[in-house]
């Protein structure tokens, strides 16, 4: 994993972006050199357009979620996204390379070279999705512990990262119960540091709950770290590997003394300026869509067009959220708050569509301009559910330390959820955002939100 502006990226993601950037540029430049027979026939212009095309392809792939870290995505879905990327790239390549002057470069040949690069990229991506990556990206991990926490780490490792090689589980004297299979437990005849060095371990994950009273071999862990072996605790590992902060491995001391959770006037000012500029642009851009949506709502179910509801915002303050009405007028006629579900029978036909593509969220851009919300942040929840979740879920109130958002890290990372368990899962992504939020992460989330909408996998 590589950290860029407080956000963790997988090594494979960085490699994909590098290939997507270099391969089209390389193929086009080689084609230009071949056409010019080693001369300077449009080489500089061809290179410029190739870079523009490659950057546009990276943006397109980001919108399609190709670079997104989704552990539940199937291999077939990954391959389908790669094929869709190629189909969308063909008209894009034609548009970019048609700008080249015919007198300088054979546009058809340049277009063919660009598409050849795309096809090679597609083959590489589909093959990687089918067979996994090679040993060059293999990462050898030793898990310290053999109890329930260690077994959970091993399961997540195998599911989330095929490049991980778990060399084994080193027993801890504090584990009350052995949960991992005996065949993967390493012998403790050698010390932890000697075992790590002999197995050429890249990383050690400390997966034990009890750490007091000399439970951890601190001297040996320090020796491993000083020799170049990374040492992570459970909370740090899940943050890096899954983009979430797991509640079951979280301690208050980790929140207090760890990095992140920074709030400053400079960060708030930059975020506010970004919100105003982008929200104003999006309101103007989507105004025709909102007018058509309003008419469709009235035609199907009459007035009102908008739905106003009290939500909990920054520091627990209440505000009115504004959305296009997607449910019947009598959706909560008994006055009892209910979770919205994925196939809620209270949703109208128009409402079902606008919720799927998130058109119902567009009026919240007004709340962004007024300062009640931000473009990116944890989704605001109703006071009734906040009281319930704050009482039942540890650290739930931490999400209110930043402004709620129209979209968020939880919305692009987790499927639609309508239960307390789903709220817990989303909270773990919200905590990651609160800890690591930056303008860069906001831009990443906005790009991925477009990808969620384009693929029809909108979340609430």
Automatic annotation (TrEMBL):
The chain crosses the membrane at residues 12-35, 47-70, 82-102, 108-126, 273-299. It holds the Pfam family Bac_transf. Its main location: membrane. It is an enzyme of class 2 (transferase). It is a multi-pass membrane protein. Signal peptide: none annotated. One of its GO terms (cellular component) is membrane. Its EC number is 2.7.8.6. One of its GO terms (molecular function) is undecaprenyl-phosphate galactose phosphotransferase activity. Keywords: Membrane, Transferase, Transmembrane, Transmembrane helix. It is found in: Membrane. Residues 271-454 form the Bacterial sugar transferase domain. This is Sugar transferase, PEP-CTERM system associated. It comes from Candidatus Accumulibacter aalborgensis. The lineage of its organism: Bacteria, Pseudomonadati, Pseudomonadota, Betaproteobacteria, Candidatus Accumulibacter.
């Amino acid at each position: 994993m590589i950290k860029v502006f407080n956000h963790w990226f997988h090594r494979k993601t960085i490699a994909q972006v590098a290939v997507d950037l270099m391969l089209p540029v390389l193929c086009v430049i080689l084609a230009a050199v071949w056409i010019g027979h080693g001369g300077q026939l449009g080489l500089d212009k061809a290179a410029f357009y190739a870079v523009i095309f490659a950057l546009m392809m990276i943006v397109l792939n980001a919108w399609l979620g190709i670079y997104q870290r989704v552990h539940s995505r199937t291999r077939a879905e990954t391959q389908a996204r790669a094929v869709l990327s190629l189909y969308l790239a063909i008209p894009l390549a034609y548009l970019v390379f048609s700008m080249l002057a015919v007198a300088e470069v054979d546009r058809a040949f340049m277009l063919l070279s660009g598409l050849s690069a795309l096809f090679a990229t597609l083959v590489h991506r589909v093959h990687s999705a089918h067979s996994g990556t090679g040993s060059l990206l293999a990462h050898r991990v030793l898990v310290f512990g053999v109890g329930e926490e260690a077994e959970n780490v091993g399961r997540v490792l195998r599911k989330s990262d095929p490049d991980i090689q778990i060399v084994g589980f080193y027993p801890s004297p504090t584990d009350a119960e052995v949960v991992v299979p005996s065949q993967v437990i390493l012998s403790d005849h050698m010390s932890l540091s000697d075992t790590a060095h002999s197995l050429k371990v890249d990383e050690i994950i400390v997966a034990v709950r009890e750490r007091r009273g000399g439970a951890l071999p601190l001297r040996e862990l320090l020796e491993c770290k000083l020799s170049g072996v990374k040492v992570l605790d459970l909370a740090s590992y899940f943050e890096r590997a899954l983009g979430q902060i797991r509640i079951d491995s979280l301690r208050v001391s980790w929140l207090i003394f760890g990095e992140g959770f920074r709030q400053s006037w400079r960060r708030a000012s930059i975020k506010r300026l970004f919100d105003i500029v982008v929200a104003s642009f999006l309101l103007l851009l989507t105004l025709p869509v909102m007018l058509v949506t309003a008419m469709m709502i009235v035609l199907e179910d009459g007035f009102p067009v908008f739905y106003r509801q009290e939500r909990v915002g920054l520091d627990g303050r209440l505000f009115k959220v504004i959305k296009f009405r997607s449910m019947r007028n009598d959706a909560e006629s008994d006055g009892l708050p209910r979770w919205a579900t994925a196939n809620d029978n209270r949703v109208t036909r128009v409402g079902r569509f606008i919720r799927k593509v998130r058109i119902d969220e567009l009026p919240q851009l007004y709340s962004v301009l007024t300062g009640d919300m931000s473009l990116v942040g944890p989704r605001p929840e109703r006071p009734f559910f906040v009281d319930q979740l704050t009482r039942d879920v540890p650290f739930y109130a931490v999400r209110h330390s930043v402004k709620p958002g129209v979209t968020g890290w939880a919305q692009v990372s987790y499927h639609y959820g309508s239960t307390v368990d789903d709220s817990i899962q989303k909270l773990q992504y919200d905590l990651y955002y609160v800890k690591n939020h930056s303008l860069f992460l906001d831009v990443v989330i906005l790009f991925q939100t477009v990808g969620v909408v384009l693929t029809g996998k909108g979340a609430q």
